[in-house]
Amino acid sequence: MTLSDTIYALSSGPGTAGVAVVRVSGTAALQALSLLTGEAMPEPRIATLRTLKDRQSEAVLDRALVLLFRAPSSFTGEDVVEFHLHGGRAVVEGVLNALSGIEGLRPAEPGEFSRRAFEHGKIDLTEAEGLNDLIHAQTAAQKDQALRQMDGELRQLYDGWRGRLMEHLAHLEADIDFPDEDLPEGVSGAVLPNILTVMSEITQHIDDGGRGRMMRHGFRITIVGEPNVGKSTLLNALAKADVAIVSDEAGTTRDVIEVQLDLGGFPVRLVDTAGVREGAGDVEKEGVRRALVRAEDADLRLVLVRADQWPSIPDAMRKWVDQRSILVVTQTDRIKDKMFHVKHQASTGSLATLGVSAQSGDGLDDLFAQVQQVVSNQMSLREAPTLTRLRHLQSLQEACGHLKRFSQNAGQDTVLAAEDVRMAVRSIGRITGRVGVEDMLDVVFSDFCIGK
Q: For all residues of the chain together, what is the average pLDDT?
């Protein structure tokens, strides 16, 4: 990968569409535009209708809108040309083939347009990741989080910490260079409270209760219960689709079944598990083991108990009834000879206790509203940006480690204390791409779409 090449790609995604956009970026972009149109350059940033021709066969490729963005006022910081074509496969392939025949042009690699934008200082790494998250966003909450990151909120937060640490580092360096002018307790001791404040802010950002992981990978809801309690039926009802086999035969579900949902704009992973019981066969035992793992890792558990058992809770289910669970009394439609009543308050130790019938639909709206409220409370966007990337987490944890060592060296060894702060500054700088990032660029941009 080199910045001297001119790159091109279909930027609007594969498949037939009304409009397809082919993007060209680099020093030869204007030459490519001239060769395909045979006309004078259009005004920058003004859509112009042009006839595109193959320069070798003179065959007409399309009547398309072309847009020209002059360097450095473009997404990549280079000369950029966009061809807005009719979206048929033959049209797109014809234009791409014509571009491939122009000397100095080559197909773009995944994420190469965004990487060039980073290399030319148009965006930092957090903004590039926000752009990629926006492209892949499947819910409104993911979209909003990505837009905040694209707007530079994470960069501003991290640059703020980095800038404050650099100010304190400057004082430490001055204390080293001019020891006769230091404070009675030494500069490192004097700046210690300020640096500990920065470390506390970083620690709070890291300790977000898993919100970043939930936003990126989905809020995990696991349905647990004994066989034939109605787990698969409830999964189908909540998913509003037949995704799990329902049968009166115990042990029908023997593996984990997972459904991706958009719940009030938030990403949710709803998981049905094998019924927990003793005496299962080898295959079913493995399903039970996996069910217990998913129950342990869940952000919320729906613990199911049959109405004919209520208010008794099976021993195997009691351990899962806590403040990460909603106790769901199922099959209420089967209680014919007595009035069935379930309290909605958390009298069992769970967040709530509700009665439902997946067959008749009774209680499902209440359950759905309760689940949605729990998800919203834990995942709603807050004032501070959310930590969504593992590499951010690792760099911030590394920075906290350096600052902790600084607190031990402060007032004793100014040289070591200054080095600790310097290393913390470098750790934070790697997140935005200010220092030492060359070895991670391929990782950051590897999961981008071609053409972005």
A: 84
